[in-house]
UniProtKB/TrEMBL annotation:
It comes from Lacticaseibacillus jixianensis. This is Beta sliding clamp. Keywords: Cytoplasm, DNA replication, DNA-binding, DNA-directed DNA polymerase, Nucleotidyltransferase, Transferase. Confers DNA tethering and processivity to DNA polymerases and other proteins. Acts as a clamp, forming a ring around DNA (a reaction catalyzed by the clamp-loading complex) which diffuses in an ATP-independent manner freely and bidirectionally along dsDNA. Initially characterized for its ability to contact the catalytic subunit of DNA polymerase III (Pol III), a complex, multichain enzyme responsible for most of the replicative synthesis in bacteria; Pol III exhibits 3'-5' exonuclease proofreading activity. The keyword Lipid biosynthesis does not apply. The lineage of its organism: Bacteria, Bacillati, Bacillota, Bacilli, Lactobacillales. PANTHER family: BETA SLIDING CLAMP (PTHR30478:SF0), DNA POLYMERASE III SUBUNIT BETA (PTHR30478). It comes from the Bacteria. The gene is dnaN.
Length: 379
């Protein structure tokens, strides 16, 4: 196989598929990048067995400036190949696969030769049917990912909690993640789903990588499900992920249906205040801040403390405070993650008791996004 292409175009696709390539794999060929060249396209593939990404560069697009001399397939060491391509001197590059899979890369006066492997030994990507495929706006999917993956567990002791639980039924998609200390739940209206019904758990790592591939120039993402795989089609990129096996815990019973104290904040203002309080709490072994709500005097005060450094106290600005007086302690990092997921809006924080989980919801969209944080016992 032999082709010439604009280097910037090639690097963009190369960066996408490289997200799925790792040096830590039990299958040596998966440390390689696979290239398939047909009469009308160049297809790059990367995989670590859990995630597989395929990016297509269309030869009919003048922008890509892909010139095909001869078709074929090859896999090349991804790390070396990527470093070479990014350092080539000219705007265009030529890849020429010769006998014994030796791959010659030229650009201007620069020429590299690296040893490739037969592409027939590369694992085949799963076939996922287009039946009952769903379509979601890319920006909405990217937001859903950002708002839920913050709560997935990083502990492999409970593998099921390292994923996001997604249920699709009656024209709705509900995405939930929890690490048992916090929870994030996002609901999407999906009229295009029709009667489709799915109940799957997608690894948080996969969704993080997917979110990074959803650039602003992608309008919609098609989602297809198979027995143990999910496929996301975004423009010319195909993103495959395995699904986690097992039963996700019933999280609906964890969300309180009533509260004794509620307070409304401007989210960015509260985020800044908690950031200041956590400057000292991070120096303490337990990393906790304390919130005092006095409904009689209509005051809200946050405290951060480190026995070795000192303490901080700040009166918080809020829009509305109702219910019983309350003092509660929590991990400030969980609260900062939650507030960043909400964005620049007003939020309602609802409490039931000092040692019971409390909820955060955006005041303008209470039905579609809720987060839950478990407080910390400090006595």
């Amino acid at each position: 196989m032999k082709f010439t292409i604009t280097r910037a175009t090639f690097i963009k696709s190369l960066n996408d598929v490289s997200r799925a390539i790792t040096s830590k794999t039990t299958i040596p060929i998966l440390t390689n990048l696979k290239m398939d060249l047909t009469d009308n396209a160049l297809i790059l593939t990367g995989s670590d067995a859990d995630i597989s990404i395929e990016s297509k560069i269309d030869a009919t697009s003048e922008q890509n400036d892909l010139q095909i001399a001869s078709t074929g397939s090859i896999t090349v060491p991804a790390r070396f190949f990527t470093e070479i391509v990014k350092r080539l001197p000219e705007k265009t590059m030529t890849v020429d696969v010769q006998d014994n899979f030796q791959t010659v890369i030229t650009s201007g006066s620069s020429e590299f030769k690296i040893n490739g492997l037969d592409a027939n030994n590369y694992p085949r990507l799963p076939e996922v049917s287009s039946e009952n495929a769903l379509t979601v706006p890319a920006d909405v999917l990217r937001q859903l990912i950002a708002q839920t993956v913050i709560a997935v567990s990083t502990q492999e002791s409970r593998p099921i909690l390292t994923g996001v639980h997604i249920q699709i039924e009656k024209g709705k998609m509900i995405a939930v993640a929890t690490d048992s200390h916090r929870l994030a739940q996002r609901t999407l209206e999906l009229p295009s789903a029709g009667d489709a019904s799915y109940d799957v758990i997608i690894p948080g790592k996969s969704l993080n990588e997917l979110g990074r591939t959803l650039t602003d120039d992608i309008d919609n993402v098609e989602i297809r499900f198979a027995s143990n795989q999910v496929l996301f089609i975004a423009g010319n990129t195909l993103f495959y992920s395995r699904l986690l096996e097992g039963n996700y815990p019933d999280t609906s019973r964890l969300i309180p249906t009533s509260s004794t104290t509620t307070i409304e904040f401007d989210a960015p203002t509260l985020l800044s205040a908690i950031g200041r309080a956590s400057l000292l709490s991070h120096e303490s072994s337990n990393n906790v801040v304390r919130l005092n709500l006095d409904t009689a005097s209509q005051t809200a005060t946050i405290y951060g403390n480190s026995p070795d450094v000192g303490n901080v106290e700040e009166a918080l600005q809020f829009q509305k405070l109702e219910g019983d007086a309350l003092e509660i302690s929590f991990n400030p990092d969980y609260m900062k993650d939650a507030l960043q997921g909400v964005g620049a809006t007003s939020i309602e924080v609802a409490f039931t008791a000092p040692l019971r989980p409390f909820t955060l919801v955006p005041t303008e969209d209470k039905e579609h996004f809720i987060q839950l944080i478990t407080p910390v016992r400090t006595f």
